[in-house]
Specification:
The protein contains ten helices and six strands; from the N terminus they run βαβαβαβαβαβααααα. By secondary structure, the chain is of the alpha/beta class. α7 crosses α10.
Length: 202
């Protein structure tokens, strides 16, 4: 039985190399290559591959958005993330979106081929080191409201603008952000947003 695979990565060199390496596997057929998320989603809907191998960060649509959309429209397509973004914050959103696998780009082509077979059989595969990092990040110390406000402030907007977005007084917003920095043991809200993103808390 041939497993039909769609590959998506905005780095053309990686995309081409991966396609060539997987083509040497007798039971794998690369049916399409996409260099951005929009093309990946469109080709997946058109070709209905068995497996989509997706990068997380791509122009147009990121990998998580593509996975979420495909799970809604074509749940038979199983998605596998291959990424250089190993921060724990990326793992949980990918799994919640419906990813069946999550591995680093340092994975060899032979290993990846085996993981594709596993995912095709219905087995979920998460790189052990990535899983350990996600577990060690722990539960968020932030309340839901604090996480929401930090998300609104994450782009570096002035306090008055963040307050408008949160529908709060500037003083209240400043107090929230001050409490957040204390909880996360960082110097300012910019560091707080970075830490919270890496840990998957926002």
């Amino acid at each position: 039985m041939t497993i039909r695979v769609l590959l998506a990565d905005d780095e053309k060199l990686i995309l081409g190399a991966l396609s060539a390496l997987l083509a040497t596997e007798e039971d794998l057929e690369v049916v399409a290559e996409a260099e951005n998320g929009l093309k990946a989603a469109a080709l997946a809907r058109k070709l209905i591959p068995d497996i989509c191998v997706l990068d997380l960060q791509m122009p147009g649509k990121d990998g998580i958005t593509v996975i979420r959309e495909l799970q809604q429209t074509h749940p038979s397509i199983r998605c596998l993330v291959v990424t250089s973004h190993a921060a724990p914050g990326y793992l949980k959103p990918a799994l919640l979106a419906g990813a069946r696998g999550f591995v680093p780009k340092t994975t060899s082509a032979r290993e990846l081929a085996d993981i594709i077979r596993m995912v095709h059989q219905g087995i979920r595969y998460i790189d052990p080191e990535m899983a350990a990092d996600a577990i060690s990040a722990g539960e968020s110390p932030l309340t839901k409201r604090e996480a929401d406000i930090l998300s609104l402030a994450a782009d570096g907007a002035p306090i008055d603008e963040v307050a408008q977005r949160a529908v709060l007084a500037p003083g209240t917003t400043r107090n929230y952000l001050s409490n957040i920095t204390v909880k996360l043991k960082v110097a300012n809200r910019h560091e707080a947003a970075r830490v919270a993103r890496q840990c998957g808390w926002i």
